[in-house]
Amino acid sequence: MKFDLSFTGAPVTAFLDFYKWTMLQAMAHQLNHSGGVTLRYRHTVRTKNAGTARVKEALREALDAFEDRHVLLPDELGHARAIRFLKPVYVNDTLRDLRLHPKDMVRIGEKDGEVTVEVEGGIASSLLETLVLATVSELMTQLSFPTEAGRRAASDRGLDFLAGEIKKLKIAVAASPGKIFRLTEAGTRRRFTLAHHRRVMELIRNEMPGQLFGTSNIHFAFGMDLRPVGTQAHEFGMLFQQHGGTLKTFVSRSLQAWVEEYRGDLGYALPDVLTTKAFLESFDLYFAKLFDGVRHDSGDPHEWTRLVVSHFGKLGIDPASKFAVYSDGLDFAAALDLWRRYEGNPWKTSYLIGTFLSNNIPGHKALSQVMKLVAVNGQPVAKISDEPEKAVCDSPEFLAALKQTFGIV
């Protein structure tokens, strides 16, 4: 079929989540670049028999359309400069002149009916993750809905569904007037289409301004006067496994680098790079006081809450002074359940919701896909999640060494 690639004409920021910028700043300033830093990412399709190889050629063409494109446009520069924790030297000397090079950095193939994608390059190659994911998702949507009219009709159904969900959420929140519900939209990577994503953002901005904390999408944040939201992803901690010190100290070194870079801003830790239990062994009183909160991204959220709250208690820290960000595959119903149980007791909460908002078409199942860091300077790295199926590592030997180092069974 002939794919419509007109969506590639949108600004690069429409394909970027804000955490890509915040991590890039920290990598630029906190890593030792004397020997160079090369990162390799790999795309994984979790949906069984998705047949993503059908978009292989279109994906190559779509990504190549971003070759030599500026990451930041002149009319976006003022927005970036207004963000307090983005340093002038980073905005003016890095972001302003940074261009994408997917022709050089992205390798595309196929295996067993699925497209294979690897990205490799310097630290700026990290920006290509969300671009690849959003593009694959958009192309897969076109396979299911080949015409623009069909996609528009599906988008209409998705908006109608979401409007009903928003109404139910607002009724639930209104029933507890002393409690705040904080929603961050994070649907860039698995959205139905860019056009649908824009319509979703307009809907939630207009219909739930009291609950919408912000969005991870840089373009929509700037264009709709919303707060850009993003801190760090698993890859930031993972890269320290092969950079700057021993394996045993990688967690504390990654946390310290973040503290050094942001000096109190963006203080949210992501424990499940190593399993939360093992991570907390390095998250001592020093870091627990410095970080504002933690994010849940895998495993049972109730068990995770008990584990982290208990950890704060053992350190003599009142969890009421902390934030928990829940982000693991949430819809509004799941978020409301967590909100009723935990908002204000034992801590403040917020909810990072992606696919449920941006790919919410009734009867259509969004593609489950991720793109994870797999190597630093040619050496393997690993993510050991609180859910075994979310673990990432190319090397059984390195994974075994990591588990042994931290006593993970």
Plain-language structure description:
With 409 residues, the protein is α/β, with parallel strands linked by helices. The protein folds into two domains: 6-145 and 368-380, nicotinate phosphoribosyltransferase (Alpha-Beta Barrel), CATH 3.20.140; 149-358, nicotinate phosphoribosyltransferase (Alpha-Beta Barrel), CATH 3.20.140.10. 43% of the residues lie in helices and 14% in strands. It contains 17 helices and 13 strands. The chain has helices spanning 18-30, 56-64, 77-81, 88-95, 102-105, 128-144, 148-174, 194-207, 218-223, 234-239, 250-262, 276-282, 285-290, 301-314, 332-342, 355-358, 396-406, and strands at 39-45, 106-111, 114-121, 183-185, 212-215, 268-269, 293-296, 323-326, 348-353, 369-376, 379-380, 382-383, 392-393. The strands form three sheets. A six-stranded parallel sheet has the order 5-4-9-8-7-6. α15 (332-342) links the parallel β8 and β9. α7 packs parallel to α8. The radius of gyration is 21 Å and the shape is globular. The chain starts with 17 loop residues before the first helix and ends with a helix. The mean pLDDT is 97.
Compile the SSE list and pairings.
Elements: H1 18-30, E1 39-45, H2 56-64, H3 77-81, H4 88-95, H5 102-105, E2 106-111, E3 114-121, H6 128-144, H7 148-174, E4 183-185, H8 194-207, E5 212-215, H9 218-223, H10 234-239, H11 250-262, E6 268-269, H12 276-282, H13 285-290, E7 293-296, H14 301-314, E8 323-326, H15 332-342, E9 348-353, H16 355-358, E10 369-376, E11 379-380, E12 382-383, E13 392-393, H17 396-406
Parallel strand pairs: 4-5, 4-9, 6-7, 7-8, 8-9
Antiparallel strand pairs: 1-3, 1-10, 2-3, 10-11, 12-13
Helix pairs in contact: 1-11, 2-6, 7-8
